[in-house]
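Q: Joint fold for the lines below.
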Amino acid sequence: MESISTIEIWQIFITRLWPVWLALAITFSASYQWRTKLGVIGRIFNSPVGLVGLFIVLFWVFTAILADFIVLFDSLEQSGLYRRKPPGTINTAQGIPYIFGTDTLGRDLFSRMIYGSQIVLLIAPAASLVAYVVGITLGLPAGYIGGKFDTILSFIANLVLAFPVILLFYLLVAPGIRETILPNIMAGVFFMFPILFALMIVYSRFAERLNVLIPSSIVILFIGVWLYSGLVFNADPLGLVGIDPGELNIFAAVVFTTSPGVFRIVRGLTMDIRTRDYVAAAVTRGENPLFVMIWEILPNARGPLIVDSCLRIGYVTILLGTLGFFGLGMEPESPDWGSMINQTRSYIRLVPTIVLPPTLALASFVLGLNLLADGLREQSLKD
Amino acid sequence: MLFFIFKRIFVLFLTVICLSFIVFTLVTIEPNLKKMALNQANMRMEEAAVQSWLDKNGYKRPLLVQYGEWLGNAVQGDFGYSTHFRKPVNEVLWPKLGHTGILMFWVLILTVPIALVIGVLSGMREGTKTDRTLSIFSIVTTSVPQYVSGILFTILLSSWLGLFKGVAKAGNITFENFALPVLTMVMYDIGYIARMTRASMVEVMGSQYIRTARLKGMPFMAVVLKHALRNALIAPFTVIMLQFPWLLTGVVIVEKLFNYKGFGSLLVSAADQNDIDVTLACGVVAVVLVLTTQLISDIGYVFLNPRIRFS
Amino acid sequence: MSDSILKIRDLSITLPKNADRKYAVETVNLDVAKGEILCIVGESGSGKSVMTSAILNDVPDTLNITSGSVEFDGQDILQLSQIQLNTLRGARISMIYQEPMAALNPSIRVGKQVDEVFALHRPEIKPKDRKAETLKLLNQMKLPTPERIYSSYAHQVSGGQCQRIVIAMALACNPDILIADEPTTALDVTTQAEILNLISDLKDVYKNTIIFITHDFGVVTDIADRVVVMCQGKIIEEGLKEEVLMTPKEPYTKLLVDAMPLLETTRTPDQSRKDDPSVIVDQLHKIYKTRSGQVHALNDASFVLRKSETLGVVGESGSGKSTLAKTLIRLEEPTSGSVNIGQENFLSLSGRGLISSRKKIQMIFQDPFGSLNPSQTVGFMLMRGLELQGINTIEAKERALELLQQVGLGEQAFKRKPRNFSGGQRQRIGIARALSMGPDVIVADECVSALDLSVQKQVLLLLNDLQKTYQMAIIFITHDLRVAAQVSDYITVMEKGKMVEFGTAKDVFNKPKHEYTQRLLEAAPGKDWHPPRLSPEEAAKIAKSLEVSS
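A: Joint structure:
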């Protein structure tokens, strides 16, 4: 077997990533120019820790977007000849090296790692976003109005949080479940929240101005129902939007486990902010509770929530990895990092490096998010 | 105070019942039942044979009846029968819980002091090099989940340096056996506790009474030890207690990684093969542990805080 | 100066990079004579706290001492080693400051915290004797039950008692100098009088030098020997009390002294009015249920107020004045009683009716930094109120700009967010916001308490002017008798939830009937002082020349 040296491996690695380096350079210099206009995000430049985090996160974002230009092989392309080969082995037939080696089915680890980023960068932020919408829509009234509504919701949140996560996943994401309608029910419930939230925003702001309220509500409902039918039932009339039922399952399970945490934080923040005088001023003005929650309280919870969202995306990434690790994730062919770790770890004795690409990829991404969150927190405290 | 505890215990029971019911429902859904039947009898059974097997073993009765039966037995301490191990659940559950308990003991003994010391040292003098280094260390460790760090440690210490084995045998309490699993778990747990301790320490060090102590002419370390710590460590205590759910997840991952046959492995294998009684028992035990630690955390918070205790 | 115990020379302390000026304290020179009480006066941001912190070399980490020396007992404090500094602190120079309860460790019994001072500086007192010494000290502080207090925690003791304990800690080793940084600002007027008496009594016993920081000229009149006036980090004027207070030389000092409200009132309401009142409050009660029983926070509040009239509600903490404010405006629901605004019974409304009637009574809040939503622009805040009344966007914007002008802010304020404004400006925005609803009644809850003297004066004048234009009835809540005197037609004094005195302002000040009112008036610092007054034109001229903004 021919192979290339370690130095050449890293050379190829760096050069293959040239679109990413370019994108990073453009983004950083542009944001640096406009940093005063970007608020908290702009002040990241004052924090070295935050900058490193941002760099890592954007690295993976651009890698995911530009994956097709970076990879050397197709992620599914198997090879009988080159199984479990060490990094640097060259595929003589195609003349391309497997710079990080191959897995047990002869697939290129480097390319699978790069494609894996697409999965993570699609699902983790999306699931976090939906979890946020659910958490905010329920946490705001729970914290502001309190009472029985709060007691019941907090009980449910504690219930879910007390549940051992692994058990929950086995029960919800096991292959058999996919055939039932349980995933669709869960997804159906969760995807209602964004629609509800959007309507709440519009209603609270324009309640008196019917000429704005009615058209915007109709538009929201239209878009909402379209996306809803596409995502939940895979029945998009236009055929643009749809998710594989397996992925939907995972998505719904992740949202389910993450929402209570967000709920708790939003509720806590709301209970703290509602004691401020400007909230009292809004109440004495005659604002309805919906307005107070969304326009007086929520914008001021922005700081801690942005910091938390970075941490939460990292946490969701780890969760997805855990799912893959237990074999509950995507189909085995998918280059999801967690599944990759699970599949390759039995061969550590043979080829120790076989497990490194997905492992280090996942760890670096989460590290980037945590560093970014820390930098943001530092800066928002100086507000 | 007593009323508060009773209320919480009541909520605990309510939660356990709700949770066990939900788990029961999910566990007895058609596909899961089918999976169990195939596991138990014959992997290649036809649909009709599956149905008759289920019926024969009482799995076709109404849900509430089955649940009620389980609940009735559970309250008396009988958690049923493990279809996988072919033994009563109690014979399987408690020994394995013990194995995990020993592992957890060592993890906590190491995690708590190390994390607290890191947190106090960095929060004591905010912004210094010590603080920055320790903070970054904490952030790095929280970014590396157990299935990542465990594997990395295995490669480093086991494959490369040949120091430890890559697996840990249950019941064998030796340094060599436990080193890797404990190390993996400790690494991940330190980060969060250290950061919370640091935050608490920073807040306390900025308060007025610390200034008073300083202006009395007290040396810095005395200020930290006598005045700051007793206020700064209240929050971390509650945080440590509340870490339990994550510890549980970590234990499950680590036990799978190192093939340690404890409670975590039991939970996973039971859920995987739909061993109903074991799954339910594990779920109940886990939830009770989580809620109990939450209760201890709340009681501790009131107890440690004179402002609340004597008000 | 002969007999100087402390000499500050050329002291300069810089602020962090993005502050509004370079120096917190700029080339300050000051001598403190032995045995005197020196008062340092200045508004917020004048640098007085930073300067006194430097005396103990305890400035915050973000500030930098770039030059100067603090000479004490032949040594420069700024050059001392940490160990030498620790020997000095608490033993030869002590400090007490503003929030007494925050100054004590909440988790250690207060007696032990006093013992610590002995442990640190008086090793000749054996450990078992320390408690006795502490009890002796607590007795000297005129604390009623020293034993019980010794084993209490800070939160179990009142604010005034906390401050006595802190003073005990500071004087335990009979220091040469006691630095007191606004020690009575957070206390009630009556408690303040007690503490001030205590400090001067103790001075006679201990014969120490006292450096006393305050923003209240009344306090200065009562206790000072010499006065130093600071502004923007520099010493503007210094001299004997009588000179500085009665015949100030510097324009800034003159302005400051002029801003001090008098303890007398000029307003005389027409008591024979027969027109319909703007607000009628009848037998208003509010009872809170706590773990240990009930608290009757508001007990039978009743009054009538007409257009253009102002009712001053005066009281100390716990008097029920904030409860009155909250229940009037229905931020909290009263337990019983009625509030009639115009013709409607305000308390009986609910739902849509309540929402549409809320505009008739509006509130101005105390804390300029918490009363405006930091994420909204000023324009949004003002227009929102108008939109709620059904006014369309274009007219609302016009009206909002008009309001801004009326409160003395320009058009540019419209697009900006609260963080760009000073405390006084924020209160103006708060007033504009309240006015945007077109209320008949305004409740002003300590709305000038957080402002500097000179700014306070401007805001009060503004309020008076606006009342002439809009003719709303104002319920003005304050703990400061002087402020109440400036704005009130009628005054009511509240104690423990009850309105113990009610009358015209003139009557209450000159012929108080209730003994509590008499006590309050007695306790007011500087009550015998008649500060020199400037005419409004002179004041405006000086303000302009100093470019003083509010």
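Q: Anything notable?
A: Chain A is about 70% helix and 0% strand. The CA atoms of residues 218 and 355 of chain A lie 51 Å apart.
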